[in-house]
Amino acid sequence: MAEEKKYPRHVAIILDGNGRWAERQGRERTFGHQAGAENVKTIVREAGHMGIERLTLYAFSTENWKRPQPEVNFLMELFKDYLLRQLRDLMKDGVQLHVVGEKERLSEGLRKEIEACEADTKDNTGLILNVAINYGGRNEIVHAVRQLAEKVRAGELAPEDITEETVQAGLYPSDAADVDLLIRTGGESRISNFLLWQASYSELYFTPVLWPDFTVEELHKAVDWFCHRDRRFGGLNEGTEQ
Question: Is 64 annotated as catalytic?
């Protein structure tokens, strides 16, 4: 009997291609962001039904503030609207929400909505959904290192006691679990400062499909690809010659 393939427990997705999707239809980029937000609900729900335990979505990076201000303003309002309507609609599926990233730069209204959604879903036992807003992988590691430095300065931790586990404990809440499968839509082949620590041994799946066109079937295709990967984590399979 063939060995059963291991299903990904933690899937991360870089949601790329909204603007290009809109431009190809002769529409404003904001139209693409709206379509992309609507697609999130579909993919989140399907991921939960598939048995994926944790899904992390890269919604807005620390570098995205460089975009034109009207587009940034639209995205911030879209995030708030999405939290208000679509994520709350997913509560009946048992989704537990966490927003990861530097929240200080977000508006007070958005921060309050984030806090409310996180509080309302904290006891849910279904899919853990991490939405990365104003997130950067390097910033996250710096955040963890600063926490460790403060403990060393306070005499609470000796430098020789710093391990991978202590560093990981300082990463953003709920986002520290290793990523099994990292998907990027939109045709680019880079991870763009996303989950640098957690993606160390991820399988990387790049697809030309733009995010608004990333259907349930495309998600299944990516997961099936993952299930046929040979994951050795630097080692060798039994019986393999060096």
Answer: yes
What's the whole-model pTM score? 0.90
Is residue 22 a contact partner of residue 35, using CB atoms and an 8 Å limit?
yes
Which of 234, 151, 136, 233 is closest to 192 using CA atoms? 136
Q: Tell me the two tokens of residue 99.
A: 């927003």
| Per annotation, catalytic residue among 16, 39, 130, 134 | 16
First to last CA, the chain: 26
How far apart CA 7 and CA 10 sit, in angstroms, is 9
pLDDT digits (tens, 9 = 90+) for 17-31: 999 999 999 999 999
Q: Please, what are the domains in the chain? A: 10-135+178-227 (3.40.1180.10)
Q: Which two tokens stand for residue 212?
A: 């608004």
Annotated active-site residue in 18, 39, 64, 89: 64
Closest to 13 in 3D by CA, of 185, 135, 172? 185
Tell me which residue of 20, 19, 21 sits closest to 30, measured CA to CA: 19
pLDDT in tens, 36-83: 999 999 999 999 999 999 999 999 999 999 999 999 999 999 998 887
* Residue 10, strand partner residues: 54
